[in-house]
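Batch manifest, entry 17 of 40.
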Amino acid sequence: MRDALILAPSGRVWVEPLARCLGDAGLRAQRVTATEAEAVLAGAAPRLVVATPEAVVAPLLQRARSEGALLVCIGAARDDHCDEALAEPVLDEHVFRLLARHQYIAISGAERAGLADAILRQSFGDATFAAELMQALVTATESDLDRLQAGAGSLETLRSVAHRVKASAHLADCEGFRRLAQALETAARGGNAGLADAVAEVFVPTAREFLAMLLDSSRS
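Output type: structure tokens
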């Protein structure tokens, strides 16, 4: 099951840019047609479903919503059938702010559960080395969060912290977080203050959750 589904007919100009943006946020997005949606949604509900106004009212999507999927409409919201609406053109900044409003964290359940094993693999099975690496990641993440707080949204601070976090997320096998860090680094390096600020609204809570995961794992 993909993390995010985009249900839209072919030819909608916002589909590919939206899929790319969701990927940058750490969500694996898949576009499906109405005929494909039933089979795709037969399993567990994804974290996010994006659909056109005529589709959000479908019982299939309402069921996914009731099972925990965030249902987003592209265009005017359809009464209370969706959780959010994004106007066209769909801008990356708006997507990240929407995710932040709904407290999206770019770390999956599988990544949480596999953290200790990921660190052990990086340590070549050496438990002592793994404990040292875990502590190094804790220290680095604490430092990164302190720098973000002190930097007050400085693009250079965002860029440098995001660059460092990419390595930490990779070591912990948290691919969604790594992709999010890359998105933040790219926006900050490009001088796009609005987008960098929007990405940071997701990045900072994710970094805090990453630190909490590391601390929990180091104590167990």
